Amino acid sequence: MVVEFWTSGRAPDPAEVAQRAEGAGFDGIIYVDSQNLASDCYIALARAAMATSHIKLGTGVTNPVTRHPATTASAIATVQSLSKGRANLGIGRGDSSLAYIGYAPAPLKTLKNYVIKLQAYLSGEEVPFDADSNVDSLGLADKPKASQLTWLPKDQAKVPVDVAATGPRAIAMAAQHADRVSLMVGADPERIAWGIEVARAARQQAGLDGDIPFAAYLPLIVHDDPERAVQLGEGSLASQARFSVMHGKVVGPVSEKQQTTLDRIHSAYDMTRHTEGSSSQAATLNMEFAQDFGIFGPPSYCIERLQALIELGVDRFFLPGGSMLVSNNEDQVRAVTRLVEEVLPRLRHGS
Q1: What whole-number distance in Å separates Cα of residue 12 and Cα of residue 39?
Q2: Which own/partner pairs from 204-207 qualify as long-range (CB within 8 Å, at least 24 positions apart)?
Q3: Dist CA 111 CA 171 (whole Å)
Q4: Residue 239 and residue 92 in contact, taking contact as beta carbons nearer than 8 Å
């Protein structure tokens, strides 16, 4: 099994961070779709596509609310064309992208219907108009009977759709309708195994043949001092852990101590300090929880933890690092350098 390691590309210059990530040896890079907190992800992906030659490019993640599915499909298909087949569409229910326009994450039914339409658009198929369609009111001599990306090149490979999921219903939906399930449940092997089992059971229940590939979003920092590693990664750790208690109820298997910390994260979460280390949610973290939900420590420890997840069936990891490559913080630059030089080469061919 070939294992891929992706990173995030939130930085002032998306082309520069993509070039740095490609040069460092990352297999892919994702750009967040959060219009109030980051520049447009599709423009970033287009710039990255033209500045690189082989690194894969994706959204990490978009949502089913801020864009019509035809618009999302057309945007990522354009990136697919520009990059000569390197695009990937990552999607979830939405978090900061919706909070900053006054909404909670989209209901699962909304995400499911959106993913189904995305798959159809990206396959070049016709998609029926929504029930509230009113194009008939225009009195046209002729009109489209359905929606379709008519410009898609016939020889262009379909963009894969991967769904970031935490709860059992979202994982099951992703397993039945996406091309990949990306688990956002932390780094605890018990929780990863649980998510994989939920997905496989859902596919079996739906009568779908074969397995589906799995990815995992993980907070991970390489540093000889685990406490310093947690300090460098506490912002991403708190934001990712929150998904396991998004609506106040913990999902998936957890210990009593983990539940207590997750409840504290939920109560303390300040969306105006989203992903920041010096935030009220980061202040709720402790070392025991950090080492359960994330991976923080020297190279040998990180290798051991990642290898355990690879053996469970994860073949793609979304890790911090892209923005750290262009950071002015020497500790951050050193951490990502050690990741790509001392950890990733030991794991690329899995188990």
Answers
A1: 8
A2: 206/176
A3: 12
A4: no
Orientation of helix 41-51 relative to helix 69-82, angle to 10°: 10
Evaluate if residue 350 carries a pLDDT over 70: no
Residue 56 CA to residue 88 CA, distance in Å, equals 7
Place of tokens 């959060």: 34
Domain ranges across the chain: 4-128+155-220+299-346
* pLDDT for res 326: 87
Lookup result for tokens 């939900």: 293
Beta strands in 9-158 (DSSP E): 28-31, 56-59, 87-91
Q: What pLDDT shows up at residue 241?
A: 96
b (16+ CB within 10 A) / e for 104-118? ebbebeebbbbbbbb
Q: Is the pLDDT of residue 10 over 90?
A: no
CATH of domain 4-128+155-220+299-346: 3.20.20.30
Q: Which helix (H) or strand (E) holds 198?
A: helix 189-205
pLDDT above 60: residue 351: no
Supply 322's token pair: 């892209």
> What rounded mean pLDDT belongs to the chain?
96
